[in-house]
Amino acid sequence: MTVESTDKQQMFRISRRSMPMAVVRLVDHGASAVIHVEAGAEAVVAGILSDSSVEVILEEGAKLELVRVVEAGPGGSCASRLVVTQAKDSVLRSFYVTHGGRMVSDDLSVTMAGEGAEAFINGLHDLSGSERADSHTHVDHAAPSTTSNQLYKSIVRDQACSGFLGRILVRRDAQLTRAYQLSKNMIVGAAGRVEARPQLEIFADDVKCSHGAAIGQIDEEQIFYLQARGIARAAAVDLLVRGFLQDVLGQIRHDGLRTEVGQRLGLL
Amino acid sequence: MLKIKDLYASVNGNQILKGLNLEVNAGEVHAVMGPNGSGKSTFSKVIAGHPQYSIDSGCVELEINGQMTDIKGMTPDERAREGFFLAFQYPVEIPGVPTSEFLRAAYNAVGRHHGIEALDPIDFDAFIRTRMKVLQMDNKYIDRAVNVDFSGGEKKRNEILQMAVLNPRMAILDETDSGLDVDSMKIVAHGVNSLRTRHNAMVVITHYQRLLDYIKPDIVHILYNGRIIKTGGPGLALEVENKGYDWLIK
Ligand SMILES: Nc1ncnc2c1ncn2[C@@H]1O[C@H](COP(=O)(O)OP(=O)(O)OP(=O)(O)O)[C@@H](O)[C@H]1O
Ligand SMILES: [Mg+2]
């Protein structure tokens, strides 16, 4: 791997000769990064970021797992951007977490330019107080036989608000595309808000697409069951929240990073 | 151990329990039988403190630290930590929460209240395996989410596993036998019997004599329309098995 850094930009070039699977750390200086994974190479990149702009280029057969934790700090606000271009048979695993900030937004745009490209795009909002977080995803299926899977989950406590806007575009030539998108939200308490909007634009005819949004409350029968076993209400809520987030957290394939994120969220 | 006096209780504005009286002493096993819809599960949920069920009048006392104590104002978890246990007729599924984690959280919550040191995952694992052995449960269950993808009978067995983990002083078993095959029922009954001591007590709600062949009750009650309409010895259950409830209701 070669790294070139200036004050304003970090450049990572990952080749097949690079150390396999060592986690590359992005440094947050409110700046931008370019991650270029060469043909056939694999990389795991993680960063705790505030304002950031990351560009990813995946060459043919390249694989990248990218975990971004956004921390705006209490009362803070920030915006991050991720732009990905995927060549043939490349695989992207993107995981985005935000837990806090008055106004936090994330824009993610993936162009699946090569046949057989695959993307797993996941996100998690853990919000309380009067925090607000918005995730926008835009997945452009520009080549045939490309697959995208999106799972976004949110925990919304107090008066917090979680927004998810997911756009999927399937171009005319992108036959045999599969595109799945799911937004699941759990409101803890009465005052939380969720805005989930899927947008599908499909111009090819032989495709499989699905999208869905679910907004639920803490299940009081589950709480009662846990309480009936001696677990206090607050701890019972924590257990249910952890249970709710367990599958999305499981989308992080790198064990160390999954544990790290879980701990950061107080889930482990 | 448990004393219920003139209990009237409602759910969603419908009064279901209408003057229920029951007294259970340490060392005793009581059986409660009664037609569908007579209020048996309602009774068990009221005692457990389910928030949807409200007590209109009467009193419910549980022995706590040697004192009969009104538990009306106590939350379900406080009751459980004081040694009350309900084995649910319909155990609740909790997706995403591993059974092992749930059991450990419960064990530590109750234990901590009584000054018992919390167990870490490794020590708890050793402990839980001994309990599962008694109930002849496969280890794979504790890695699964609570009651998710458990068969009906497995869920019931899981209830008794929880009872074995928490070792309550006062337990109500709500139709633990329904859904269990003949062999499973023997195993579960054996598990329940192994937990019996002179210092604890239980109420076994059932429709069938078969369970009572294994868990022998001292006293049998018939609950009908929200009240105990008859109390007798073990013979009463046999009589119900043969004759049904008609002769009691008239
Ligand atoms: N949440 C509820 N809302 C409204 N009515 C309820 C509710 N729960 C129970 N009931 C009613 O209360 C009555 C008693 O129900 P309960 O479940 O206590 O009966 P049961 O004796 O346990 O019956 P079974 O033998 O079928 O288990 C029934 O008529 C039932 O419809
Ligand atoms: Mg019932």
Provide a short characterization of the protein structure.
The complex is a heterodimer of chains A (about 270) and B (about 250). With about 270 residues, chain A is mostly beta strands.
Under CATH at level 1, the class of chain B stands as Alpha Beta
CATH superfamily name of chain B?
Answer: P-loop containing nucleotide triphosphate hydrolases
| 3D shape of chain A | globular
Helix/strand-derived class of chain B? alpha/beta
- The number of domains of chain B is 1
- Give me the number of helical elements of chain B: 9
Mean pLDDT of chain A: 92
Number of strands of chain B: 12
Q: Count the helices of chain A. How many? A: 3
Number of domains of chain A: 1
What small molecules are bound in this structure?
Answer: adenosine-5'-triphosphate, magnesium ion
Helix content of chain A: 10-25%
Strand residues, percent of chain A:
over 45%
User: How many angstroms separate the termini of chain A?
Assistant: 32 Å
- Most residues in contact: chain pair: A-B, 23 and 28 residues
Write the H/E string of chain B, N to C. Answer: EEEHEEHEEHHEHEHEHEEHH
Low-confidence stretches of chain A: none
The dominant shape of chain B is globular
Characterization of the model:
The complex is a heterodimer of chains A (268) and B (250). With 268 residues, chain A is mainly β. Chain A has one domain (2-264). Helices cover 13% and strands 53% of the residues of chain A. Chain A is built from three helices and 17 strands. Chain A has helices spanning 220-227, 233-249, 255-264, and strands at residues 2-5, 9-14, 23-26, 32-37, 42-49, 52-58, 63-70, 77-86, 91-98, 103-112, 118-127, 132-141, 147-157, 161-170, 178-188, 193-202, 208-217. A nine-stranded mixed sheet of chain A has the order 1-2-4-6-8-10-12-14-16, with no helix packed on it. Chain A is globular, with a radius of gyration of 19 Å. Chain A starts with a strand and ends with a helix. Chain B has one domain (2-249): 3-Layer(aba) Sandwich (Rossmann fold), CATH 3.40.50. Chain B is globular, with a radius of gyration of 18 Å. The longest helix of chain B has 15 residues, at 99-113. With 250 residues, chain B is α/β, with parallel strands linked by helices. In chain B, helix 5 runs parallel beside helix 6. A six-stranded mixed sheet of chain B has the order 6-9-10-3-11-12, sandwiched between helices. The mean pLDDT of chain B is 94. In chain B, 36% of the residues lie in helices and 30% in strands. Chain B contains nine helices and twelve strands. The A-B interface holds A 220-222, 224-233, 235-236, 239-240, 242-247 and B 48-51, 75-77, 80-81, 85-86, 88, 91-92, 94-97, 101-102, 105-106, 109-110, 113, 145, 162, 166. Magnesium ion (MG) binds at residues 40-41, 89, 174-175 of chain B.
